[in-house]
TrEMBL record:
Name assigned to this protein: DUF4097 domain-containing protein
Superkingdom as given in the UniProt entry: Bacteria
Residue stretches making up the DUF4097 domain: 131-242
Annotated Pfam families: DUF4097
Transmembrane portions of the chain: none
InterPro entries, per the entry: TAT_signal, Toastrack_DUF4097
Length: 245
């Protein structure tokens, strides 16, 4: 009697291994075809810092930024000092700072895609300069500003401290807004689509509007519909607070 010693037929990789191998091949091909590759994914963004002074008779500061943080600090200066921290991946942005009719405007252009470059601004200003700030994405910080101010960001937080501005408006699509006033404002409007809207003011009587779609509503100051001082805090989702101090 003969005994068969034939080996079982060889089997290929398991279905799980074949799936992983195929997925890896697809990912590698996608990286090559897209022109990204691992090298560019690991490449650090480039950065440059430049500072300059702007003199003359100025009445307003305007900033129009696509992406980047903005810090405005009122000091004892007679003119404006600007520090730009420029970030880019391919080509550096072209920054501008023209003065027209007493208005200093800071902005920039990205040679290629907007998301491949940006500018962070730190600006020192004199007293009573009006401030109008816009950034598509980035935080805005205000310190001791006394001139009329407006701050808008599409996505980011807005914070202000030791403010003495009589009129102030701060708005963000997504992020917290918190302003602290050293003197009672005539008008303060804070709005956010998602986040907390909080204002701190000296004790006084205000015409207050506080609205929230989801969150706490707190008002600690005296209120009257006939008050000459007006406060609006509004959020789609988050706390709406008017606090003393």
């Amino acid at each position: 009697m003969s005994i068969s010693t034939a080996r079982p037929a060889a089997t290929g990789p398991s279905r799980g291994r074949r799936s992983l191998a195929a997925a890896g091949a697809v990912l590698g091909a996608a990286l090559l075809l897209s022109g990204c590759g691992l090298r560019s994914l690991a490449s650090p963004a480039q950065e440059k810092v430049q500072t300059y002074d702007v003199g003359g008779r100025l009445t307003m500061l305007k900033v129009d930024s696509g992406s980047g943080a903005i810090v405005v600090d009122q000091t004892g200066r007679s003119g404006v000092r600007v520090t730009e921290t420029v970030h880019w991946t391919d080509d550096p942005p072209r920054t501008r700072h023209p003065v027209d009719g007493g208005t200093l405007t800071l902005d920039y252009d990205c040679p290629r895609d907007e998301w491949r470059c940006g500018v962070d601004y730190k600006i020192e200003i004199p007293r009573d300069l009006r401030v109008d700030l816009h950034t598509g994405s980035g935080d805005i910080t205000l310190r001791a500003v006394s001139g009329e101010l407006k701050a808008v960001t599409g996505s980011g937080e807005i914070g202000g401290s030791a403010l003495t501005a009589r009129r102030a408006s701060a708005e963000t699509g997504s992020g917290d807004v918190e302003l602290r006033f050293a003197t009672a404002p005539g008008t303060a409007e804070l709005r956010t689509g998602s986040g907390s809207a909080i204002v701190r003011v000296p004790q006084d009587t205000y015409d207050v509007t506080a609205r929230t779609g989801s969150g706490q509503k707190v008002v600690e100051v005296g209120t009257s519909a006939s008050a000459t001082r007006r406060i609006v805090v509004q959020t789609g989702s988050g706390d709406a607070k008017v606090l003393k101090g």
